[in-house]
Amino acid sequence: MRGLARIDQDVMDWVEKDKPECGPYDAIVKPIALAPCTSDVHIVWGNAYMSDAPNRILGHESTGIVEEVGSHVKDFKPGDRVIVPAITPDWLTVPGQKGFGQHCYGMGTGMSFITFKDGTFAEHFNVNQADGNLAHLPDEVSVDQAVMISDMMTTGFYGAELAEIKPGETVAVFGIGPVGLMGVAGAHFMGASRILAVGSRPVSVKVAKEYGASDIVDYHDGDTVQQIMDLTDGEGVDKVVVAGGNANTVGEALEVLKVGGILGNVNHYDGAAEIPLPALAWGAGLADKTIRGGVCPGGRARMEQLVKLVQYGRFDSSKLITHRFTNFDDIYEAMIIMRDKPRDLIKPAVILE
Ligand code: NDP
Ligand code: ZN
């Protein structure tokens, strides 16, 4: 079979491999939709690859059709349409049992794709512990919508969950790429009254407003902190979601956060040696401000719960797709677009049916 692989640092190309084996608890899935993630870009052209295996097939955002299941799989059968969560942990680990499957073998290792085995940019791929790591795709949910749930929706919403947003609170979301836009939507669903979204791409600004942003802050238009303080009459915000920016963004987010606030970070500071924190913004350590950051939890239960928001018409996750491709080989171009981030991009996707 064919797959698009990280050949080595900074080198991406096609490889030919045998179809993966199906263990007793696994499934083999054929993709019907694929999307590249900024994390795939970090894995090829950044510092995010956590293995030393060469020729590893990329990809962790997908929707597909089950082709084969292992003898111990109970709830899935060949022909089932599924969303494949980006994070497919080994749930039989102690961190998994404590609710942190996304870190089952150490930080971030719940992303079994690429970390431990080939990813989803292949004609067939293996999903470990299928009963725990596949999610049924309801008929009412389109393939476009489904593939945007597999990582973007669960990650962006997780940022809002980390920040523990409460009804009526004012929230700032730093970054409105696909992850931040889902952070905006998550904040909106959790009841935020005002959502100040930080970003500049016009396509993202439009979707941010549709997903619930009340104010847009362009970080090119001067100091982001000052702009947010001005918009909130000098008060700042109750909660922050960080889904973009650089190592200094955490400090900026801390500066606009009120005392008692929570910062929920899902941004990856790839390559940063330090994340500087302005001491005064943290009350020299005494401001009762909480900084949290994490990888979205994976697995089936969360995915089948999130998909209901789309299934019952409460939310359209497909608004993120700005670049749509229809051939399997187009995943190469989609990766290049994701790396280069043209101004008209939110998210590319390859939809195969
Ligand atoms: P994008 O690059 O598409 O979006 C980044 C956003 O940040 C853009 O809106 C950009 O603005 C904005 N931005 C850039 N610089 C600044 C700045 N100085 N201050 C404020 N905002 C700024 O990224 P994605 O949405 O695809 O991904 C976001 C992050 O999430 C990545 O680091 C990715 O690796 C990570 N991620 C984390 C996961 C997890 O589980 N924790 C899972 C998946 C992804 P502009 O509009 O101008 O472009
Ligand atoms: Zn991802």
UniProtKB/TrEMBL annotation:
Belongs to the zinc-containing alcohol dehydrogenase family. The keyword Zinc applies. InterPro entries: ADH-like_C, ADH-like_N, ADH_Zn_CS, ER, GroES-like_sf, NAD(P)-bd_dom_sf. CDD domains: NADP_ADH. Keywords: Metal-binding, Oxidoreductase, Zinc. Pfam families: ADH_N, ADH_zinc_N. Its EC number is 1.1.1.80. It is an enzyme of class 1 (oxidoreductase). This is NADP-dependent isopropanol dehydrogenase. Its cofactor is Zn(2+). Residues 8-352 form the Enoyl reductase (ER) domain. It comes from Methanobrevibacter thaueri.
